[in-house]
Amino acid sequence: MEAIRLTERYGGVIKEEPLSCISNDLILKNTCVIEAVSPYFGYYNEVKSNSQPKMVYFILDGYFSLEVLTRATIKVQQKVKFPIDAVTGTITMNNQTCYVIRFLNLDNYSHIQMIQQYYIDEGLSFKKKTMSFSEQMGLIKLRCFFNLKPMGEGIYLDEEKTNIGYFEIPHNIPWEDFKKLTTEVKFDTDLLYFDASRAYLFERCSIIDLVKIYRENLSPDRLMAIRDRYLKLIG
């Protein structure tokens, strides 16, 4: 496969993780905010660590275009005194899909109400909370930019997040099939302890399909070994 020549590309990630509602006293009244109970579930469900990332999802009241969400996020970032890492997407649970803004490593949950209000000031609205749940699996689809460092042979490391890497696969794999494939890959005990999700990048008139791998201290050699096992099983 031809290597990606530009380091920054736009695409998406598909993954599944346990989700829980955040306490009402931390969010604006009549809104819904969800946190990932165990981000990168495939890794941290097996490996205990104090450096586990935090992911929070604001549930939007319907669809807002990427332009509207991006402009709103730029305005919100100008108002807060700390960096925010926000991307857009959807969460599907119980056959219902909601539009979301995902925040990575929002350490202080006391900031949630303030950030929500800033988005409201920019014309966004949030979905009213109609139910509460804890540690329920949700299918998450995010749209985002990727900053990639090509390592050759269709392998890339994330230039900003040192525990993340990607490798190309020959075609799209539906999520349920991908979960089964990942289970088979992990039967090789030398390759235990990683989280895998589906990813893709847009190119002119084409899409590049990828697997996204997360594990602490991820090395190119480890990523290549995982890649080789996936490709062998894909055939």
A few lines on this structure:
The chain is an alpha+beta fold and 235 residues long.
Inertia-based shape: globular
Q: Please give the largest β-sheet.
A: 10 strands, antiparallel
What is the tally of beta strands?
10
Strand content: 35-45%
Low-confidence stretches: none
Gyration radius, rounded? 18 Å
**From N to C, what is the helix and strand string?**
EEHEHEEHEEEHEEH
Mean pLDDT: 92
**What's the domain count?**
2
Helix content: 10-25%
What separation lies between the terminal Cα atoms?
A: 15 Å
Number of helices: 5
Given the helix and strand composition, which structural class is it?
A: alpha+beta
Describe the structure.
With 235 residues, the chain is an alpha+beta fold. The protein has two domains: 12-138, no CATH class; 147-234, 2-Layer Sandwich (Gyrase A, domain 2). The protein has five helices and ten strands, in the order ββαβαββαβββαββα. The chain has helices at 41-44, 66-79, 112-121, 175-185, 220-234, and strands at 8-21, 33-36, 55-59, 86-93, 96-104, 136-152, 155-158, 164-168, 195-203, 206-214. Strands 1, 2, 3, 4, 5, 6, 7, 8, 9 and 10 form a ten-stranded antiparallel sheet that branches. Strand 6 (136-152) and strand 7 (155-158) form a beta hairpin.
